[in-house]
Amino acid sequence: MTSIKNLSIIRYSILLAVLLVIAGTRQASAQLTGLEAMYFQDQYLANPAMAGLEKGLNLNMGYQSQWTTIPGGPKLEDFTGDYNSGNRVGLGFIINSDQSGLIDLTRIVGTYAYHLPLSETSKLNFGVSFGLNDSYIDYSKVQGDQGDVSVQLFNERRIYMDGDLGIAYTSKGLNIQAALPNLGSVLFNTQNENLDADRSTFYTAASYIITVSNYSTDFTVEPKVAFRGISGFQNIMDVGANFAMAEYNFNVSGIYHTNQSATVGVGFDLKPVGFLFSYTNNTGPLKAYANNTFEFGLKYAIVDVNK
């Protein structure tokens, strides 16, 4: 009886994931090059269902500088925290700062996630985030008439409600997820008045952790494929893998993006603190104008070692 009930839950969850992807094709509100940490180090960034997935506290901070050869190139900053006391409920928050040229965007959301055990090693995870989104022009960056009425009118626009919705299936090795970010643009049709171009419209991903053992050491390989939508651009597929050697507290990742860019990352897990350094190289037409993207991530985790 229990297995039949679990099977029904999985079927409904798969249906919900498909509906999320379909709904995600609508206009919504993240940079064309998102934070690399969302693929492996801090998956909560991309999907609220990943908040509090495991018992303990996780704090993450990230900084990314894009198009370093161009003045006013995009800069992303984020601070996230998620917690699970040991039950099925996960709680979290995300603070994002997105600076592109004259425009600064700040987004703050809180997250509630529910993790339903299907077996001893597998869970079905649901998550929803709600909060505020605000974009404005920094007067100190304006080179010209800072009293321009158009600048004033832009900054007088209202702050609007925003959020995310996500679902994920996780097991000892398999991870399948789908998310519909930036609900404010979908539910409240805010993309036009808030200039939500170049924003994420949907996110899906699948990965599997493979453990390789030999006489000297063990390491894991996690291949991952992600598919995401960007408002105003073609959908992007990300294909890569993360190689981790827990014995040496070291991991390295590589991801190719179909927008003709590639990312290489190196991480150090010095428990309870972790570090991430990554570099993205544009190989397409954009390379002639803006080639480099650098990212730094810092993680502090207190987990239950007896789980």
Describe this structure in words.
This protein has 307 residues and is mostly beta strands. The chain has one domain (2-241). Helix content is 11%, strand content 51%. It contains 3 helices and 15 strands. The protein has a 14-stranded antiparallel barrel. Strand 13 and strand 14 form a beta hairpin. It is globular, with a radius of gyration of 20 Å. The two termini are 27 Å apart. The model is unreliable at 1-31 (pLDDT under 50).
SSE order and pairing:
Elements: H1 2-23, E1 56-66, E2 75-84, E3 89-100, E4 103-117, E5 123-137, H2 149-155, E6 160-170, E7 174-180, H3 183-187, E8 200-208, E9 210-213, E10 218-230, E11 236-245, E12 250-257, E13 261-270, E14 273-282, E15 292-303
Antiparallel strand pairs: 1-2, 1-15, 2-3, 3-4, 4-5, 5-6, 6-7, 7-8, 8-10, 9-10, 10-11, 11-12, 12-13, 13-14, 14-15
Mean pLDDT: 81
Count of separate structural domains: 1
In what range is the share of β-strand residues? over 45%
How many DSSP-defined strands? 15
Distance between the termini: 27 Å
Helix content: 10-25%
Main sheet, how many strands, which sense, barrel?
14 strands, antiparallel, barrel
